[in-house]
Each structure stands twice: as C-alpha cells, then as structure tokens.
C-alpha cells in the first residue's frame, strides 16, 4: 500500500479541488489543435511536397528564361507573362493541394476516431465534444489557409531570388522583374483570399464534411458527395432548373459577377465587399448549424 | 455519498433490451467486479456510467449526470474501455504531453516512473508497441490521474497471463488507496477474485446478485462430496450441483461449515462457480456464460 492509505481519504482531494478551476478553458482547445497537427502531418507535408515539385519545375524553366526574356525584350505584355506566370501557377497549385488536404482531413476527422475506436480514449479525458469538434473545424478554416499562405510566400521568395540570380547571371536587368510582380500587394491579396475565401468562404463545405464525418458509419466520402448530386438531379428532372448546382458552384468558385480580368490580381483579390456580403454571413450561419449537429452526433455516436 | 447511484436504468437498442430497470449503488473506496454473460448489459451499464451512451432512468456518478456532464466528470473519473483504444499514430511522449495539457489531475512524473519499469520508450509510436505494451501505456496514463473513480471494461482481454497479472498487481499496489473506487468488468473473474471487495452479477439488463467479498467468503461454501454421502449432502439443499472428476460438487448458501465438513472437502467457491450457480438457477433458457 502506498503512503496515501494512512491519510484521511478526503484530505488530498480538497487541496487539489482548486486546480480544475485554474485550468483555463483555452488549454483543452490548444492541446486539441496540437493533437490534430500531430495526427495529420499531411497538413504540412502535402503543401511542402507540392512546393518542392514546383521549385523543381521552376528550376528547369529557369534554364530557358534568359533566352525567352531577350526574345520578348520589346513586348512588355509577353515579358509580363513570362515572369509572372510561374508565380500564379505556384500559388494555385499549393492552394489546390491544401484544398484537397482540407477535404480529406474533414472527412476523416470524426470518422477515423470512431473506426479505430480511439474515441474511447479521447472521451476518457475532460475535453468536451464542442471543444473537439471546434478544434477540428479550426484546422481547415484557419490553420490550413495560414499554412498555405506561409508556404506560398516562402516559395515565391525563393523563386524570386532564384530568377533574379539567373537573370543577373546572364547579364539581364532585374528591374523589369521586381516591380511587375507587385510582391507586397499580391502578398496581402493572397492572405485575404486564403483566409477569406478558402477559410471563411468555404466554411460551410468544411462544416458539411465534418457533419458527414461524424454521422457516417462507412464511406464518408460517398455520403458527403452523392446526396448533393442527388439533390441536383432531382431538381433538374422535377423543375428543369439548376439552382442548387448554381448555389454550390458560386460557393466553390466565389461570386464571379465581377471583372473577368486575367492574371494573379484578378484571381486572388476578392471583391471588396466580400466580408460584408450577406452570402458570407449566411454561409457562416449554415456552418454553425452543421457544426452544432456534428457536436451532438459526436455526443451520441459510438465506435463503429 | 455513494460514488455511483442508479435507479431504474433503461436502455434499448431497437428491440433488444440492454438495460432493464437496473438498480445499482456503489460506495466510495470499493473495488467492484461486474460479472455477466455476453450481452448481459455490462458494457451498456458502464457506458451509461461514463456518459458514453444516453439512457432512461436516474443515474448520478460522483454527484453528476454523466450524459450531460461527461467532460467535467472525466476530471474525477477515468476509464479503460476495451483493449488498445489508444490512437495508433500517437507517440508515447505526445500522449503524455496531451494528457498533461488537458487533464488538471494528471501527474506526468508518476506516469513516467511507471513507464520506466516497462520496455516502452518515450519516442515509440503506439503502432510500434505490442498489445501488452499498449495496455501498459494506457494503464500508466490512467494511474497517473488522481481520479476518484476508475472504470475498467475488459482491460486485459487478449493479453497473456503475465501481462494480466502485472496489470492487476500494479493497480492494487500503485494505485488503489481505499478512497478511490474501481469497477472492473471482465470474463477472467477468477484472476481478480482476491482483488475485489465486492462482486455483482448482471444478467439481462439487471443486477441479479450483489455481495461483498467478506460476505461471499462467509456465506458460500463448496463441498466435493464423498460418493457415499451425496444423499446426505443433497438433504442440506445445495443451491447448485455439478460433476467433476466423477465426484459431485455441491454449492451451499449459508450452511454451517461444521455441518459440511464430514461430507467431504470444503472450500470457498470461485466467483465463476457461484456465477454459474446463480445464473443456472434463474428461470429461462440456458445462459451462454463465457467465464
């Protein structure tokens, strides 16, 4: 027997009774987020791998760049395209990568823990279902856009230095490269686009995927996609309209009623009214409903 | 105050009734063995106590409603439900970090000193550990939590006898301190017989037998009756009779030891034997008891 057995049974408890109150409410959230990052290393690895491949491609592109720039010396539009295109492409590829990561992350977030029964361990700890679900929503809505942003900016910086070195090395001026890129305005635009569009704008999608993930007993991907397809098909046959598909399209593609200008700035700069638009707030309300339902489901659901 | 108090607990899965008005009271500081055949409602009852499943009826655990207050309850209660539910991707050190982070009553040093006695390295991932080591890790995490209630549902299923023995030895020597309450549900009853202070049998969603181990030892006696005295022994109205090695073994409830001694070898029955006797005496079809 240990020493405790000699003590009055209640006395050691009372002195520790204060501890739970001291533990701030943010601690479980902080550790839940870290837990997600430990488990889902693809959050970092996938965009980093994409960045590595892009860099490889860019290096090969660099071999021919000086010659092309010389050939296009007199045509500013062509020069602009030569220099700017890889940067746009790099940003889009990394975005696409993290979007795919986000989708599969959400689908597995509340399904995987039931499938491998680890939910029985997580539920044996004083972390509420709301904290858990919220932490799993914060990953695609906040963390992934920020990771995308950081990696994209780092990649662009490396590309910029690399291309400057190559151009200087072959006796060309870099004065044409730097101002054209508008590095800092596109940086802010990118941040706004990622956090606004990919984070908050897509939040209803992530909420829906998390809800399905909490609900499905198997094949969460099919449950997440086929019902949407079914609604679209039924609507098309019954009313010969496509409002549902249009709604989904505008949610994913953003409101494309604005200018059709090409290039980085048009893609990345959201419309000024984005944060005040009704669509965004309706979307966030829908997200809240989905997440509340997911919390309730996690409360009820048992291991599969 | 009772640690657990349940009255008229009901739970059905479709047409299957898992809990059929279960009444239960567990005082603090007990080590209770909850024994029952498969499908008797053991796990459902424990899940209700732990806030993992909704139920009808009244249930208070450490003064709380487990279904609505699971996260607060888990500051004072802890459980190992089933073997190997630790996430396979987690590193041992991460598991420690995480529990330190979210649990106000977790003492990291205690868990580490327990792990130091095993072959588990902090850098290992759970998927690299053997089944027995995963259970050791889980036990290390749980024992370092200063909880008032610990629930173990088949914590050693599928482990070899060395791990099983070690598990209960650690629990008893390093953890139990008479102020904590421990509930163990297992099929390997005989191994924990000397660990328990109380035993309950559950069958068809109800508690059908409830006894402290002191009462158990004074009330129930088993006699391997000499062949020529079987009739005399049967006259004392045994609660159960079985055959082993060509001899009759009779189980008696509240019959004086002096009265039984001349009839054959008298001993305290195992919980498993009493379980078979109690459930065998219940009306209805034979039980699929898998002890």
Please describe the structure with a list of short key phrases separated by commas or semicolons.
heterodimer; A: 304 residues; globular; B: 291 residues; alpha/beta; 4-stranded antiparallel beta sheet
Write a compact overview of the structure shown.
Chain A is 77% helix and 0% strand.
How would you describe what is shown here?
The complex is a heterodimer of chains A (304) and B (291). With 304 residues, chain A is mainly alpha-helical. Chain A is 77% helix and 0% strand. The two termini of chain A are 40 Å apart. Mean pLDDT of chain A is 82; it is low at 1-18 and 255-271. The longest helix of chain B is centred in the middle third of the chain and has 15 residues, at 161-175. In chain B, the strands form three sheets. Chain B has a six-stranded mixed beta sheet, with helices on both faces. Helices cover 31% and strands 29% of the residues of chain B. In chain B, helix 4 (108-116) packs antiparallel against helix 5 and helix 5 (131-143) packs parallel to helix 6 (161-175). Chain B is α/β, with parallel strands linked by helices and 291 residues long. Chain B has helices at 42-49, 70-73, 92-102, 108-116, 131-143, 161-175, 189-192, 213-219, 230-234, 257-260, 271-280; strands spanning 2-13, 16-27, 31-35, 56-61, 77-81, 149-153, 181-185, 198-203, 206-212, 220-225, 240-244, 247-253, 264-267. The interface between A and B is large, with 39 and 45 residues.
**What characterizes the major β-sheet of chain A?**
none
Terminal CA distance of chain B reads 33 Å
How confident overall, as mean pLDDT of chain B?
A: 90
Number of helices of chain B: 11
Round the mean pLDDT of chain A to the nearest integer and report it. Answer: 82
Q: How would you write the strand order of the largest sheet of chain B?
A: 5-6-7-3-8-9
Structural Rg of chain B? 21 Å
- Overall structural class of chain B, as computed from helix and strand content, comes to alpha/beta
The two chains with the largest interface, and their residue counts, are: A-B, 39 and 45 residues
Major β-sheet annotation of chain B? 6 strands, mixed
Radius of gyration from the alpha-carbon trace of chain A, in angstroms = 25 Å
Which regions of chain A are unreliable across 5 or more consecutive residues at pLDDT < 50? 1-18, 255-271
What is the β-strand count of chain A? 0
């Amino acid at each position: 027997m240990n020493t405790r057995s000699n003590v009055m049974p209640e006395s050691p408890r009372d002195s520790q009774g204060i501890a739970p109150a001291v533990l701030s409410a943010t601690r479980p959230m902080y550790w839940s987020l870290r837990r997600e990052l430990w488990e889902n290393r693809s959050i970092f690895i996938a965009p980093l791998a994409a960045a590595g491949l892009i860099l490889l491609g860019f290096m090969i592109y660099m071999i021919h760049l000086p010659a092309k720039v010389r050939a296009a010396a007199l045509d500013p539009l062509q020069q602009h395209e030569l220099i700017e295109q890889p940067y746009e492409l790099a940003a889009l590829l990394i975005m696409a990568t993290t979007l795919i990561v986000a989708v599969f992350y959400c689908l597995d977030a509340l399904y995987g823990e039931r499938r491998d029964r680890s939910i029985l361990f997580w539920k044996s700890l004083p972390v509420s279902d709301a904290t858990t679900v919220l932490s799993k929503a914060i990953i695609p809505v906040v963390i992934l856009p920020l990771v995308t942003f950081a990696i994209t900016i780092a990649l662009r910086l490396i590309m910029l230095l690399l291309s400057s070195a190559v151009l200087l090395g072959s006796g060309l001026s870099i004065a044409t490269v730097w101002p054209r890129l508008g590095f800092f305005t596109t940086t802010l635009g990118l941040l706004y686009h990622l956090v606004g569009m990919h984070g908050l704008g897509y939040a209803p999608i992530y909420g829906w995927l998390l809800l399905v993930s909490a609900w499905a007993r198997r094949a969460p991907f099919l449950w997440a996609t086929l019902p949407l397809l079914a609604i679209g098909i039924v609507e098309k046959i019954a009313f010969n309209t496509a409002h549902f598909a249009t709604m989904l399209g505008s949610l994913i593609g953003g409101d494309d009623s604005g200018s059709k200008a090409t290039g980085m700035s048009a893609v990345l700069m959201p419309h000024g009214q984005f944060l005040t638009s009704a669509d965004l707030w309706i979307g966030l309300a829908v997200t809240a409903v989905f997440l509340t339902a997911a919390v309730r489901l996690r409360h009820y659901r048992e291991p599969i | 105050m009772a640690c657990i108090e349940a009255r008229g607990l009901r739970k059905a899965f479709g047409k299957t009734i898992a809990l059929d008005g279960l009444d239960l009271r567990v005082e603090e500081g007990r080590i209770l063995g909850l024994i029952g055949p498969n499908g008797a409602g053991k796990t459902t009852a424990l899940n209700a106590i732990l806030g993992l499943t909704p139920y009808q009826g009244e249930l208070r655990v450490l003064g709380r409603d487990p279904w609505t207050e699971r996260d607060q309850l888990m500051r004072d209660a802890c459980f190992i439900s089933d073997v190997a539910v630790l996430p396979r991707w987690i590193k041992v050190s991460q598991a420690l970090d995480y529990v330190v982070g979210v649990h106000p009553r977790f003492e990291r040093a205690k868990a580490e000193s327990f792990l130091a006695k095993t072959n588990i390295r902090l850098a290992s991932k759970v998927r690299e550990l053997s089944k027995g080591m995963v259970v050791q890790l889980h036990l290390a995490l749980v024992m370092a939590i200063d909880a008032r209630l610990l629930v173990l549902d088949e914590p050693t299923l599928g482990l070899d006898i060395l791990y099983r023995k070690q598990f209960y030895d650690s629990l008893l020597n390093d953890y139990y301190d008479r102020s904590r309450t421990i509930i163990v549900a297992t099929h390997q009853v005989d191994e924990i017989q000397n660990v328990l202070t109380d035993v309950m049998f559950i069958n068809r969603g109800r508690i059908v037998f409830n006894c402290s181990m002191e009462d158990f030892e004074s009330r129930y006696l088993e006699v391997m009756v000499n062949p020529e005295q079987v009739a005399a022994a049967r006259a004392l109205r045994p609660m159960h009779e079985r055959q082993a090695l060509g001899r009759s073994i009779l189980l008696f409830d509240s019959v004086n030891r002096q009265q039984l001694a001349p009839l054959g070898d008298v001993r305290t029955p195992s919980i498993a034997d009493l379980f078979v006797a109690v459930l065998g005496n219940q009306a209805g079809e034979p039980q699929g008891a898998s002890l």
